[in-house]
Amino acid sequence: MAGITLDQAQAQLDLWLAASAAVAKKQSYSIAGRSLTLADAADIQRNIEYWNSMVQKLTAAATGRGRLRYGVAE
Q1: More confident call, 66 vs 57
Q2: Which of 33, 42, 62, 70 has a CA between 20 and 30 Å from the CA of residue 4?
Q3: What percent helix, strand, coil does the chain show, rounded to 5?
Q4: End-to-end CA distance of the chain
Q5: Which sign, positive or negative, has the C-alpha torsion 4, 67, 15, 24?
Q6: Whether the Cβ atoms of residue 39 and residue 47 lie closer than 8 Å to each other
Q7: How far from chain centre, in Å, is Cα 56?
Q8: pTM (whole model) above 0.70
Q9: Per-residue CA distances from 39 to 20, 42, 51 (Å)
Q10: 51: Cβ–Cβ under 8 A, 6 or more apart, which residues?
Q11: CA-CA distance, 74 to 72, in Å (whole number)?
């Protein structure tokens, strides 16, 4: 499997930041006793943190300021 490029990571980060902005405007609503939740804000924040970290690591690797390291969560 090919690795993730900086452009791909940045595109994902941009999407999650846009999702966060959309959720900030309206998280959920109720009509006639039924409710709809648009997104999980905590999940969005975790994804923002993950993709921001990937962008930083890939940027550092591309500029020679660090090595790209992958870890496996238990």
Answers
A1: 57
A2: 42
A3: 55, 10, 30
A4: 21
A5: positive
A6: no
A7: 13
A8: no
A9: 9, 9, 18
A10: 9, 12, 13, 16
A11: 6
Q: How many residues does the chain have?
A: 74
Determine how many CB atoms are found less than 10 A away from the CB of residue 39: 14
Question: 36 - beta bridge partners?
Answer: 29
Rounded to the nearest angstrom, the gap between the alpha carbon of residue 54 and the centroid of all alpha carbons in its chain is 9
Q: Say yes or no to pLDDT of 73 above 90.
A: no
The rounded radius of gyration (Å) of the Cα atoms in the chain is 16
Can you say how many angstroms the Cα of residue 50 is from the centroid of all Cα atoms in its chain? 6
Q: What gap in Å lies between CA 45 and CA 49, rounded to an integer? A: 6
- Confidence at residue 69, expressed as pLDDT on a 0 to 100 scale: 60
Q: Tokens 């499997």 appear where?
A: 1
Mean of pLDDT over the chain? 83
